[in-house]
Design goal:
Blueprint lengths: L3 E4 L3 H14 L3 E4 L2 H7 L7 E5 L7 H11 L5 E5 L4 H9 L4 E4 L4 H17 L18 H12 L7 E4 L6 H10 L8 E5 L5 H9 L16 H4 L4 E5 L6 H13 L1 E2 L8 E2 L3 E6 L3 H6 L5 H7 L2 E4 L10 H16 L5 E2 L1 H8 L6 H15 L4 E2 L6 H4 L8 H15 L5 H20 L4 H8 L3 H10 L11
Parallel strand pairs: 1-2, 1-3, 3-4, 4-5, 6-11, 6-12, 7-8, 8-11, 13-14
Antiparallel strand pairs: 9-10
Helix pairs in contact: 13-15, 18-19, 19-20
Length: about 475
C-alpha cells in the first residue's frame, strides 16, 4: 500500500501525525514544504495527501491544484489554522476530500484518513459509464404495474387521471404517456392549476382577446391552443375553482372553447391528462369538485405508489440521482455505503421521490469524500429513527459503521458478546432469575445458559428455583 503524505511546515503537527499513524499501522511520509512533496510524486505517488494551506513557497491550495492535475484519484485533505469561508470554498472547489480546521481531534483526523484511503483503494473510474437512463425508474411490483399501464395506453388517446402523493413523479408519468402515444411528436403543455391565481387561470387555459380586461393589450393564445394536436397536462386539478371546472367540462364535452372576451368558438383537438394528490371522491361529497367533470377525466386512472410502498427502489433511485447530480455539477459521482443505503431504505420520505432527489443533490454538494456513510446524512434525517421493528438492526448497523470507522479490531466478537449479554440479562429479568425458564425462552439448554452466564460475568445474579 502506498503511504499517506503529511505536508506541513509546522514540525509539531508532523510529529502528531507520525505518532498517530504509527499507532494505527498506517504507512506515511512527511514533508515540510509543498515543492519537496511535488518532487517526489513521479517516483511514488501517495495514497492520500494531508496538507496545510499556508506554507512557505507554495500554498496547500496550489499543491491541491497540481495534484488534481497529475494524480486526480488521490484524495487530498486540506488543513488550516485560518478557517474561514474563502479557504473552505476554495478547498472544495479545488476538489479537496475534506477540510480540517486546526486545532483538530487526532482520532477524527485519523478517521478521515482511513476514509480517504478506502476511497483511493477502490480505484474506480472518475465517472461511471454514462448510459442513457430510462425515463422512470422502478423495479418494485407496483411500479411494474405503472409501466404496464403506460404500455397498454401507448396506442390510446384516452383521458387519464394520475393520482398519488406529492413528489411521486406524476408529471414524469404524464410525459411518458404523451411520448409513447400517437401524439408523441406534438406539443406537451403542462400547467399547475394550484400555482396560478384564480383570476389568471382562465386566461392561462383559454387565452384572451385584446381588451378583454385591464392590461390585455394584445390577443394571447392559452394552453389549450398551445397544446393543439398534442397533450395538455393539468396538474393538481383538485384545486381548480368551481367556475373553471364548469368551463373545462364544456371543453371536454364539446371540443371547443372561447377565449376570455371572445365571441368566436375555437375547436380543439387535445388529449387531457390530469393529476392530483387529493381524494376527488371526498371533494365531490364536500361539494368542492364537480362529479360530472370527475367522470370525464377519470376514464383511465393510474395510481402512483408513494416511495414507502416501493422501498426496494430506493437504492436504484439514489444511485441514479447521485450520478445525475454529479454530471450536472461536473464533479465525481458519490456512492452510498451499504449501511447508508439500508438506513435510507427504512425512511418514510414524506416528500417521496422528489425528496430523495433533493437529498442526493445535498449529499453531492455537502458530504465529505466519495463514500457516503450514515454520519454524512443531513442531521434532520439522522434524527428520524424509522418507526419499524427493524430499528434495532439499524442501530446495530450504525454501531458497526462507527467501530469500523475507528479502526477497531475483533468487532464481531465484541458485538456478539454484548448481544448475548443483553439477551440473557433481559430473559433472566423477565423470568425473575429462573434459569430453566429463561433457557427455554431463549432456545438454549440450561447448561449452555449457565456457561454463558459465567463467561459473560453475569454470575452475580442469584439463581432461583424453577
Amino acid at each position: 500500500m502506498r503511504p499517506v503524505w503529511i505536508i506541513d511546515d509546522d514540525r509539531s503537527i508532523r510529529w502528531v501525525f507520525e505518532k498517530a499513524l504509527t499507532r494505527e499501522g498506517i504507512a506515511f511520509k512527511t514533508f515540510a514544504a509543498a515543492p519537496e512533496a511535488m518532487a517526489a510524486v513521479p517516483a511514488a505517488p501517495p495514497q492520500v495527501v494531508v496538507t496545510d494551506i499556508r506554507m512557505p513557497g507554495r500554498s496547500g491550495l496550489e499543491l491541491l491544484q497540481t495534484l488534481k492535475e497529475r494524480c486526480p484519484q488521490v484524495p487530498v485533505i486540506i488543513m488550516t489554522a485560518y478557517s474561514d469561508l474563502e479557504n473552505a470554498v476554495a478547498a472544495f472547489r479545488g476538489g479537496a476530500f475534506e477540510y480540517l480546521a486546526k486545532p483538530f481531534d487526532v482520532d477524527h483526523a485519523v478517521e478521515l484518513i482511513r476514509r480517504a484511503m478506502h476511497q483511493s483503494l477502490r480505484g474506480e473510474d472518475k465517472f461511471e459509464s454514462d448510459t442513457s437512463a430510462p425515463e422512470i425508474l422502478g423495479q418494485a411490483p407496483s411500479m411494474q404495474e405503472v409501466f404496464r399501464t403506460i404500455g397498454r395506453l401507448s396506442q390510446s388517446q384516452a383521458t387519464v387521471l394520475i393520482t398519488g402523493e406529492s413528489g411521486t413523479g406524476k408529471e414524469l408519468v404524464a410525459r411518458a404517456l404523451h411520448r409513447h402515444s400517437p401524439r408523441g411528436t406534438q406539443p406537451f403543455i403542462a400547467i399547475n392549476t394550484a400555482a396560478i391565481p384564480k383570476d389568471l387561470l382562465e386566461s392561462e387555459l383559454f387565452g384572451h382577446e385584446r381588451g378583454a380586461f385591464t392590461g390585455a393589450q394584445s390577443m394571447r393564445r392559452g394552453r389549450f391552443e398551445q397544446a393543439e394536436g398534442g397533450t395538455l397536462f393539468l396538474d393538481e386539478i383538485g384545486d381548480m375553482p368551481p367556475d373553471l371546472q364548469t368551463r373545462l367540462l364544456r371543453v371536454l364535452s364539446e371540443s371547443q372553447f372561447y377565449r376570455v372576451g371572445g365571441h368566436q368558438p375555437i375547436n380543439t383537438n387535445v388529449r387531457v391528462i390530469a393529476a392530483t394528490h387529493q381524494d376527488l371522491e371526498l371533494k365531490i361529497k364536500q361539494g368542492l369538485f364537480r362529479e360530472d367533470l370527475f367522470h370525464r377525466i377519470n376514464v383511465i386512472r393510474l395510481r402512483l405508489p408513494p416511495l414507502r410502498e416501493r422501498r426496494e427502489d430506493i437504492p436504484l433511485l439514489a444511485k441514479h440521482f447521485l450520478q445525475k447530480t454529479a454530471k450536472e455539477l461536473g464533479v465525481e459521482t458519490k456512492h452510498l455505503s451499504n449501511a447508508a443505503t439500508k438506513y435510507l431504505s427504512l425512511q418514510e420520505f414524506p416528500g417521496n421521490v422528489r425528496q430523495l432527489e433533493n437529498l442526493c443533490h445535498w449529499l453531492t454538494v455537502m458530504a465529505p469524500g466519495q463514500d457516503i456513510e450514515i454520519r454524512d446524512l443531513p442531521p434532520d434525517l439522522r434524527a428520524e429513527a424509522p418507526a419499524q421493528a427493524t430499528d434495532w438492526l439499524n442501530a446495530l448497523q450504525i454501531e458497526v459503521e462507527r467501530a469500523l470507522g475507528r479502526g477497531e479490531q475483533g468487532i464481531m466478537s465484541e458485538l456478539t458478546r454484548q448481544f448475548e449479554k443483553a439477551l440473557i440479562s433481559r430473559a433472566l429479568a423477565h423470568t425473575g432469575g429462573r434459569r430453566i425458564e429463561a433457557a427455554s425462552l431463549l432456545g438454549l439448554g440450561r447448561n449452555t445458559l449457565t456457561r454463558k452466564i459465567q463467561e459473560l460475568g453475569l454470575e452475580d445474579r442469584p439463581e432461583k428455583a424453577d
